[in-house]
Amino acid sequence: MAEKILIDSNEAVARGAIAAGCKYFFGYPITPQSEIGEYMSRELPRIGGTFLQSESESASIYMLYGGAMSGERVMTSTAGCGFALMGEGISYISAAEVPCVLVDVMRMGPGIGTGGGQGQTDYRLATKGGGHGGYHCIVLAPFSPQECFDLVQLAFYLADKYGMLVMVLSDFIIGRMAEPVELRALDFGPVPQKEWALKGKGKKGGRHDWLFGGTSYPPRSVTENVPGYHLHQREKYQEIMAKEVRYETYQAEDAELLLVAYGSSARMAWGAVDIGRAQGLKLGLFRPIAVWPFPNKELKEAASRAGKVLVVEDSIGEFVDDVEFAVLGQVPVHLLGVWGRHIPGSQGIIHPERVLEEVKSLL
Amino acid sequence: MSAENKVKVCATPKLRSFVPILHCPGCHYGIIIRLLCENIEELGIEDRTILLCGVGCSFLWPVAFNLDCAACPHGRAPAMATALKRIHPDTILITCQGDGDLGAIGLGCFMNALSRGEKLTTIFLNNAGYGMTGGQMAPTTLLGQVTTTTPGGRDPRTSGYPLHVAELAAVMKGVAYSARVSVHTPANYQRAKKAVKVAVQKQIDGIGYGFVEFLSACPASWRMTPRECLAFIDERMIAEYPLGEFKNVDRID
User: Fold this and answer.
1) How far is Cα A225 from Cα A206, in angstroms, rounded to an integer?
2) Tally of domains in chain B
């Protein structure tokens, strides 16, 4: 077994990226994820890499875009309003099909929000876009420091495999939660060669490449123009929807009420299942690990078996839309959102006991 | 004269791609593309040069070169070039950006790259307006100049003053070279070519940022013939935007 150390998820994300071979990080400070950049600023120069503090998230995303064109593994991280500023660049990266990883550690609310309190309010922006023009990104939602360490490595692999930006969607509680993490470097297998990378044609046997992020010039993988480009993108997204669904269930087989949650809310729901089961309540949990592609079919089956669904998320309701779409009206879907916090305020969370209280009102 | 004695005095640079120049008749961009090709060939850096172009008419540039090239989003070429240069320090990064791209939407991105003292070269194309979108006002539009968004002529009380980027770049510590040039006469072409060569050499030598601003004709948005454009540059643009070197240092302490 690899070494195990006590670290929080922000550090686990940074360490996971380095374990995946990422040596270049571009980012702008914003709570609650500045520790990722701080760690990178200390560690990357030691391994011959580069940390660069950008002047804004707009610059960060274009440093990520330019960096991805180099053919090396590159990453940025951000939160809330900083994530929103990156929308245009994410769209360009999706069009150009260059691989890279973005970590969003969510905080609460629109605008400046709580200035860095807990929340899960970037879900829609992450899973449905936020940039223009229509695209998808794979979005992985870890719920522990260990999963942060592992999923960021998976994110780099998937980014290379499909030629796209892959997001890791963390949140305030997850980001600053410390647990023992096994520092295991994961091997997912070979990835496509990046023969298109911009590094000067001298290193490519005299061949040069022209990279564009748009439909008026075809990306490197298609030769047709607009219809061909969109057909290619659609086929790629369909392949991802078929192959990259990831989820976990807990006590769901005989559950009479299914809790559905991701990230920190899934931890609260997990606790509620344990407490409820001890009291004889047949509760189960369904936890998407990838929130795009969403496990529609698998969730629909589990929800149909249970007959009742309670979504727990720390927002006014974003993730619940995907759950309702998956279940397609077959069973009632209830929501316990940000108003369900046991402790109100920016640092508040929804406790397992509060989830259980809601469960009892539904049974 | 026999065939053996023939000397080729003029040819298409070998870095020019098969794609024809896509700009309007009378536009100076084709001339500047040639000038860039000649310089990159003469400096012997074509194997390690990466060209990043902006949005606007320069969006058409990447396909003009037999080089590693990318088209960047509006105003963001300096950020992308920064990342590429940091990752591949042995490459030569040249950004080509118009006055809307660099002077308006991308001014912050550009100034921060200068402020960081990046080892990059920027070719700035000043044609006193937005060409691609049909002749709107740019930060570089002259006072009194009629554009589609200043139908009564640019009035500083509502639209501000012409932006002098070459002078602005020169005051930044991280800049090794800043000049303004033109290609509206053969003599100016030679001076412009030399300026670009010096600016790129500053990057090759690792001294600092190199910047060259071109005054460039835009017959379509100026509503002028190509010949009238030459006179406009000579009489009006140079009066506002003087040609010459604003900074040339061999060391930045």
Assistant:
1) 26
2) 1
Token pair 């298409």 is found at: B12
Place of tokens 């692999």: A157
Residues of A in contact with B68 (CB under 8 A): 198-201, 204, 208-210
Minimal C-alpha gap between B106 and chain A (Å): 10
Inter-chain contact B48–A62, Cβ cutoff 8 Å?
A: no
Question: CATH number of the domain that B201 lies in?
Answer: 3.40.50.970
pTM: 0.95
Query: Which residues of chain A lie closer than 8 angstroms to B108, CB-CB?
Result: 55-56
Q: Which of B40, B87, B93, B115 to mutate to test the interface with A (most CBs of A within 10 A)?
A: B87
Chain A residues with CB inside 8 Å of B16's CB? none
Is B1 part of a structural domain of the chain? no
Q: In the 8-state DSSP scheme, what is residue A218?
A: -
Nearest partner of B172 among B247, B105, B107, judged by Cα: B247
Q: Residues, chain A, total?
A: 363
Instruction: Compute the count of residue pairs across chains A and B with CB atoms less than 8 Å apart.
Output: 121
Q: What is the pLDDT of residues A173-222, one digit of tens each?
A: 999 999 999 999 999 999 999 999 999 999 999 999 999 888 766 555 55
- Collapse the DSSP code of B122 into the 3-class scheme (helix H, G, I; strand E, B; otherwise coil) and give the result: strand
How far away is chain B from the Cα of A56, in angstroms, using its nearest Cα? 9
Terminal-residue alpha carbon distance, chain A: 44
CB contact under 8 A, B79 and A198: no
* Token pair in block for residue A332: 């009632």
Which residues of chain B make contact with A199, given a CB cutoff of 8 A?
50, 68, 88, 91
Is residue B185 within 8 angstroms of chain A, CB to CB? no
What's the ipTM? 0.94
Measured distance CA(B94)–CA(B38) in Å, rounded: 14
CA–CA distance, B59 with B52 (Å, rounded to integer): 9
Return d(Cα A8, Cα B119) in angstroms, integer. 37
Q: How far is CA A244 from CA A292, B92, B137, in A?
A: 9, 39, 48
Domains in chain A, CATH or no CATH each: 4-182 (3.40.50.970), 249-362 (3.40.50.920)
Interface test with B, best of A210, A215, A220 (most B CBs within 10 A): A210
- d(CA A215, CA A133) in angstroms, rounded, equals 10
* B1-33 confidence digits (pLDDT tens): 566 788 888 889 999 999 999 899 999 999 999
- Distance between CA atoms of residues A359 and A169, nearest Å: 27
Sign of CA dihedral A339, A344, A345, A351: negative
Answer yes or no: is B153 within a domain: yes
Using CB atoms, which residue from B79, B90, B112 is nearest to A66? B79
